[in-house]
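cron nightly-structures :: item 1 of 1
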Amino acid sequence: LDVGEREITALIGPSGCGKSTILRLVAGLILPTLGRVTVDGAEVETPSPERGVVFQNPDNQMVASIVEDDVAFGPENLGVPREEIGRRITDALTAVNMLEYRRATPHNMSGGQKQRIAIAGILAMKPRVIVLDESTSMLDPAGRRDVMNVVKKLNKEEGITVVHITHHMDEIVDCDRVIVMKDGSKVFEDSPKELFKQDVSQYKLTLPLINQIYVKLKERGAVGEADVLHAADLIDAICR
């Protein structure tokens, strides 16, 4: 499979399908026994700050008791000059809307806030690619929405390529592309709109609630053919 530069690509599928293996291969945490993994033409052989990974539990990525020290950890280990580290901390926390918390204690924060700090720590290392490994799975709906808004902003404004591994189908609607995996293989690759036109149960997936409502209304003849990804699309379909 290929991931396009500056794209947000969702990687979905049932548990055990190979999503996390893909993550580890891209991050350089494991090496392939067959084939090659390349980023911008260069073969992936070791972990690199150019490829940042945000894991499921933000607490596992916290290494300091103060937010700005936590964000500084990566650049410090890369040997970035002190003045530059200060600028990176400010820029990274600004990007995730957490600048006012730079001297706060992360362990007292909500899950969504912690995850944003984890993303800031990755941003401070200036990655070209960010991989989200089910990074919203432990968050409530508000926290998930918060993190996804940050991810979309970083992609649009910073041009960062994003690979989003998730089991929340509603999070893929704004992605550029969706890759569905099953039993270690790619079984679908297209836009979210094209995926939702299919019977997703064949991939052991469930449509987002908005799309389930649309399907039920369509079965009863209450709405016609429409491309429904968001609640506003459903309202338009009903009002036609």
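cron nightly-structures :: done
The longest strand covers residues 177-182.
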